Amino acid sequence: MSIKAIAHVCLRCADLNAALRFYRDMLGIEPQFNFIRNGALTGFYLKVADGMYVEIFEAPDVSGVQHNQAAPLSHFCLQTDDIKGLRQKLADNGYEPTEILMGADRSWQFWVRDPAGIRMEFHEYTPESSQITGQDVELARR
Questions:
Q1: How far is residue 79's CA from residue 110's CA, in Å, rounded to a whole number?
Q2: Domain extent for 43
Q3: Phi, psi of 26 (to 5 degrees)
Q4: Into how many domains does the chain fold?
Q5: Strand duo 76-79 + 52-58: pairing
Q6: Which of 1, 79, 102, 128 is deepest in the core (most CB within 10 A)?
Q7: CATH code for position 32
Q8: Which residues have C-beta within 8 Å of that of residue 125, sequence separation ≥ 6?
Q9: CA nearest 12: which of 51, 49, 44?
């Protein structure tokens, strides 16, 4: 037995329409299938890539996570091949992405929160990225 990949990340949100606009319209992640209960949409699966999905369920009691508040999900990261274009698209549509920085792993990155307040990281790999080279990353001492 071996683990092959992360199958999906499951998120809860108060507004499915806002989540769909963000993930489909802003990030271009296409719906794979819906979850229906009693004839009503209660969630959906979004296909990031072959075998990789984001699962989102409606949870009316969920409010946005406040900055620096502990949460069960720290963040998740999606890879892009156009980090500047994606950051600009999010900014143009009222989201508040951070500036693009070179990470300690030698990958370009920025951060934003989705409509439910989930922290999201975006990477654009470089030829020197540890994800490609396998090189360890030396972090600054605390």
A1: 11
A2: 1-60
A3: -85, -45
A4: 2
A5: unpaired
A6: 79
A7: 3.10.180.10
A8: 79, 107, 108, 131, 132
A9: 44
Lookup result for tokens 């890539």: 49
**Does residue 70 fall inside a structural domain?**
no
Separation between Cα atoms, residue 35 and residue 132, nearest integer Å: 36
Burial class (CB in 10 A: 0-12, 13-18, 19+), 62: middle
Q: What is the pTM of this model?
A: 0.75
Between 63 and 104, name the one with better pLDDT: 104
Strand partners, 110: 122
Closest CA to 112 of 137, 81, 89: 89
pLDDT digits (tens, 9 = 90+) for 70-98: 455 768 889 999 999 999 999 999 999 99
Same domain, 79 and 123: yes
DSSP line for the chain:
-------EEEEEES-HHHHHIIIIIIT-PEEEEEEEETTEEEEEEEEEETTEEEEEEE-TT--PPPTT---S---EEEE-S-HHHHHHHHHHTT--PPPPEE-TTS-EEEEEE-TT--EEEEEE--TT-HHHH----PPPP-
- Asked if residue 67 is part of any domain, the answer here is no
